[in-house]
Amino acid sequence: MSRKLSVLILGLFLVGLSVSAQQLNTQMDSTVTTFGEVTIKGKSVKYKALAGKQPVWDKKGNIIAGLYFTYYERTDIKDRSKRPLFISFNGGPGAASVWMHLGYTGPYRVIVDDEGYPVQPYGVEENHYSILDVADIVYVEPVNTGFSRPVNTMEDSEVAKRFFGVNQDIAYLATWINTFVTRQNRWDSPKYLIGESYGTPRVSGLSLELQNSHWMYLNGVILVSPTDLGIERGTAVGAANQLPYYAAAAWFHKKLPADLQSKDLTDMLPEVERYTVDELIPIMAKGGSISGAERKEAAKRIARYSGLSEKVVLEHNLRIPESFFWKELLRDEGYTIGRLDSRYLGLDKNDSGERPDYAAEIRSWQHSFTPAINYYFKNYLNYNTDLDYYIGGHTRPWDRSGNTTGDDLRQAMSQNPYLHVMVQSGYYDGATDYFNAKYNLWQMDVGGNLQDRMSWKGYRSGHMMYLRTEDLESATDHIREFIKQSTPKEGQPAQYLRKTKG
């Protein structure tokens, strides 16, 4: 072999080693700082943005993952002991924080029309309803969401074992939050958790884990479009509780009888809710033992409130699957309706079938959010990486066993007299429906002792109610009110007082 050829081969070998050593996933503890200014509620708000990763360590102090976060801090605040810190999570469980970051509470918002539908050109605009005027916010990406990743040396099975499960998720995120609060010097600030969808069991479980394992006590937890929080429904309650949502979706699409359709949505729904609790749940509990007359009358009432035919209701033994409802309600018009937001319409290949071919609302949202978030990180936050931004779908399999998060939140409230809870639900959300969100609150507090610290708010949109401009404005105002309600008066002790008999 000639000397020149040997040198060439050696050079190529060394280049190969250099390239292979330059792993994509190496920056586990680094940040980029930028500064910005937006107008919120008609007033200028200047802020600092910190974008980057903070590690997750194992018990021996070895880095096992890097969690990407974006932290916004208003810069004209001198005393942060009274400045709330919001810690924000999305759901999935594999969803990135993009949805609430660029849709709801952050300083910039994805460009959509007033009802939340995508428009071009894609991009972002100032969010004039952001809560950054009243609170600092950190958006956290759990492992395998956004830019967050485990170390490259970890096998997939080990990643799932350590990170992908209800309780695994809560444990490592609580430790991460503890480190973040310490690094940012926010221990004396009022702290809030806000979670959407699967983010709601996440923040519910965190409320207790932070108290018990880190002695970090919160002022508030906000549950946006909550799941069941591990609260059992059973076959009877689970089937019956869908009816109010069906009525809301049917009302929106003008499929209800004239007397119901002529009423406003929030005037119509209480009738359906009363029927569900007082009559339908007992009927469902009887199952096959009900008489033919009872069955026929129940089918008539369900059809009246759902917009479906009595024939279809009877064919399903009074229990209408959600996926069938999304296919059936507008079948005669050739459309399906959305799961997470039933205002959205889809077109299937065939009108026949038991479920829609695709989720119309998800496809619509991906139009807007995917290009916007990738553009935003690079051009507004100056965060550059060749990693893919995982919007969802990279946290399987997920261990859902041992989900007691609803009761965890109740226990955290019992232990902490300062802790308040607010639920925000969209009436047209068929995945985490508004009535089951109310049911959560009822079952979390069966003794009725915490009702003065619990609240529920409804909006005329779906799962991501904030995409609709009118609901964005009201929902963020509700957060501002919630902060005031959950802020104790100066010197007010965290204690329970016995009620005296008078």
Automatic annotation (TrEMBL):
It comes from the Bacteria. GO terms for biological process: proteolysis. Keywords: Carboxypeptidase, Glycoprotein, Hydrolase, Protease, Signal. Residues 1-21 form the signal peptide. The keyword Heme does not apply. One of its GO terms (molecular function) is serine-type carboxypeptidase activity. This is Carboxypeptidase.
